[in-house]
Each structure stands twice: as structure tokens, then as C-alpha cells.
Hints:
The protein has helices at 17-29, 41-54, 70-77, 93-103, 115-123, 125-130, 146-153, 180-191, 236-239, 255-272, 274-291, 324-340, 352-355, 358-367; strands at 8-12, 33-38, 60-64, 82-85, 106-109, 134-137, 159-170, 196-199, 202-205, 210-215, 222-227, 245-250, 297-308, 311-321, 348-351, 371-376, 384-386. It is globular, with a radius of gyration of 21 Å. By secondary structure, the chain is an alpha/beta fold. Helix 1 (17-29) packs across helix 12 and helix 10 runs antiparallel to helix 11 (274-291). Helix content is 39%, strand content 26%. 47% of the residues are buried. Helix 1 (17-29) links the parallel strand 1 and strand 2. The chain starts with 7 loop residues before the first strand and ends with a strand. Strands 7, 8, 9, 10, 11, 12, 13, 14, 16 and 17 form a 10-stranded mixed β-sheet that branches. The chain has a 7-stranded parallel β-sheet with strand order 3-2-1-4-5-6-15, with helices on both faces.
Amino acid sequence: MSQKMPPRILILGGYGNAGLLVARFLLQESNAQIVIAGRNLSRAQQTVAELNSEFETDRVSSKQADAANKISLEAAFADIDIVVVASSTADYVGNVAESALAVGCDYLDLQLSSPQKLAVLDALREEIEGKERCFITDGGFHPGVPAAMVRYVAPKFDVLEVAHVSSTFQLNWQALQFSDSTLAEFMDELNHFNPLIFKNKEWVTMSLNTSLKVDFGDRFGERYCRPIFLEELRLLPAMIPSLNETGFYISGFNWMTDYVVMPIAFVMLRVFGQKAKLPMGKVFSWSLKKFSLPPFGAILQLEARGLKDKKNRCLQMQLRHDDVYALTAVPVVACLLQYLNGDIRRPGLWFQADLVEPVQFLTDIEKLGINVDLIDSLSDQLILQDT
């Protein structure tokens, strides 16, 4: 009997902040052959040399792939099982997805979520299903994890009524470098800000002044978080019929970014559109680097309320790590481990948080180094208010 060949995973942007961590964890946790790809072949080759040396292996190789060039992409994807898109190439999501379909490989992206990206992928849904490919979008930690957290705690209630997921993070932005395309994607996310939550059994657009007061514990304390819609949440009311209220909320960055730069950016993007993306992205980056102070780290927190054995119950789940890029990469790897095992690979277009089996997903996330706590909480901090 012939031995099954190891899966081949190409990481587009594998020499970037998150892509490199995905490669490292995959080398640690699987027998996959890893291909580091991107426009800059010399950077890809340098990364390959470092990874092969670090892991004492020859499982890592490089390819040149330009997201703007479908011929380049199809050549790079030709012998690949799944493409992991970790590059800032949202403008070329159609090229990448269509090239994957053309050569017959699967797809997972951990790019910032945007209506533009999701519309392009949704337009390909019929072809994805017809060619029996598995396409996974909105990988990472937000989006990527919140809906999975809600799905994880739902069986712990007889009736789950309220589930809010919130996030706060402070990075040492001075230590990070961003490409122009990444800065433009930040502005895209700001431009598509959508304060939509599920409340009283219906989706409601909240005012920009709506906030949720969340206690993140000793390190970050209490913070006001604003609602921002994640598409992965849309299916939760159908999955959990008792759910009355759910949403995702995020805290700000720092006083300069939140109260000066972002309001200006809103106006500039409305007035000048695409022309404002890069200049405002650079101002945004400057404000993050200049005004963000320690403590550094990232937290993703779920607070859920409902009934268990006819008694009120409140559960809190918290995921935290000092490195936000680890918190981005680890859930992608946890998803890929289920994919490689064949547990979740099925034809169609899926959101990471809706596709994964949540118990194994959270188990693997903790195994890979993310702190995961689940506690019963009697306090009730789930208070929406206008500030």
C-alpha cells in the first residue's frame, strides 16, 4: 500500500507578521509541506532558510507569486492542496480565489473582513460548490473566533439568551512594520464600520455612541467597547434559537487615534474615497506608534447569560496572549488541523468560526499557547449605554 503524501500548504505572504507564525505552528503540529510565497522571492527564500534551519527539516520551500497576476498565481498553486492567504492583497481576492479554483486547490484567508472581499467570494459560491472545493474566509481571531466561542458555551446552558464577545488589545506598534497595502486595508475596515447587533430577536443598527462596559480584568481593567458587526455572527440565531441578543464589541486604541485621527479619517474617506486611504493610513500608523503605551497584549472575552437547571447562569470565557499576531495565527492553525484531519473539509464557502468544531478548536487554541479561561460569573456587566 502506498503511503499518503503529506499535504502541501502554500502561505501567500508567508514571510509577513502573521503568515510566518502560521508556518511555524504548522511545522510544529503537522507533517505538511509548507510553501512560502509572495512577490518578494528573496524574502521568501530567506524565510525558508530560517525555518528549515530552526526546525531541522527540508519541508519548507519557496515560490514567487504576485496576487495581481493570475498566471503567476496559477503556476504557484499548481501542486498545492490549500492556499492560506496571509498577505495584504484584499484588492486581488478575486485573482487569488479564481486561481485556486482554476487549478483545483482549497482556500483559507486571514485578511481583514470587508464587504468587498465577501462579495467577491460570494459571487464564486456556486463554482466553489460545483468544483467541490472548500473555501474558508474570515480566519484569525476577530473575525475567526467570536462565533465559535458562542457555539462552545451554548450547550452549557439549557437556554442561552445573551452572548456578547468583546476585545481589547494594545500593541507595541513601534516594533511593527506595515506595507502600504496593509495600511490601506486598515482604512477599508474603518470605512466599512457597521455597528450592527442582534437584539430582541432582530438585527439592529446601533448609534455610533452605543457602548458596552466590559471588565477585562487586572491588566486592562474596565473599558467601553463599541459594537462592530462580524458576518460570522449572522448564523448564530439560527444555530441557537433561544438567543435573544448577541454582538461583537471592540475597545479603542489611544486618545489620539480614537478621538482625533479616526474622526478625521471618516470624513476624508467619505469625501475623497480611494485617494484618502493611503495618506490616512499613514497618519493612522503614526498615531498608533506615537501614542500607544504598555501594558501590551490582547484579550478576546465572551460574557454569556441564560438558564441552567431553571437557575440564572452567567459564564465568562477569556482568550489572551501578549502577542496579537499569535492570537491571529493560532486560531488559523487550529482550523487547519481540523481541515487536515478531514473533520471539517466540505465543499462550499464557510466562515472559520462557523465551520470549526468548537470544542476541539478551543482545545487546540489552548494547546498552542493561548491562555483560555472559562469561569462562572455572578456579576452582570452586560450594560449597553450611550456615552
